[in-house]
């Protein structure tokens, strides 16, 4: 979910969930976001209800999060597994790596995706 405006060709609910800042504020106040952060002049976050619903149905969820967001999600969903996705030649901060169940170095997007799917036990 983001407070930024849609770009040409983007659709609400398909590419992202686009929300006005006031609605985003209401969701924060109501505990409707698992995590949120600022991205330049905008904010982005992970809505709680759809994620919890999907997990409750036994479906895997992949979230591209920064370290604070990942920590917030694992605090709210203790069964969450953190996977660090790193570019080639990049070393993770040791404290961050200690929190992650796995580290995937992505020299090729397809290979990283296949490795993530394998970690989820999906086909």
UniProtKB/TrEMBL annotation:
InterPro entries given in the database record: Guanylate_kin-like_dom, P-loop_NTPase
One GO CC term, this protein: cytosol
SUPFAM superfamilies: P-loop containing nucleoside triphosphate hydrolases (SSF52540)
Keyword tags: Kinase, Transferase
Annotated TM spans: none
GO molecular function, one term: GMP kinase activity
Ligase in keyword set: no
Domain Guanylate kinase-like as annotated: residue spans: 1-123
The protein, known as: Guanylate kinase
Organism of this sequence: Micromonospora matsumotoense
Organism phylogeny: Bacteria, Bacillati, Actinomycetota, Actinomycetes, Micromonosporales
């Amino acid at each position: 979910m983001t407070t930024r405006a849609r770009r040409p060709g983007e659709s609400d609910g398909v590419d992202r969930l686009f929300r006005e800042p006031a609605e985003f504020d209401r969701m924060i106040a109501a505990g409707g976001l698992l995590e949120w952060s600022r991205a330049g002049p905008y904010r982005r976050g992970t809505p709680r209800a759809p994620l919890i619903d999907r997990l409750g149905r036994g479906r895997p969820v992949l979230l591209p999060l920064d370290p604070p967001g990942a920590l917030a999600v694992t605090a709210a969903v203790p069964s969450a597994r953190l996977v660090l996705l790193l570019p080639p030649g990049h070393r993770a901060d040791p404290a961050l790596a200690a929190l992650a169940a796995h580290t995937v170095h992505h020299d090729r997007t397809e290979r990283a995706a296949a490795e993530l799917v394998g970690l989820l036990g999906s086909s």
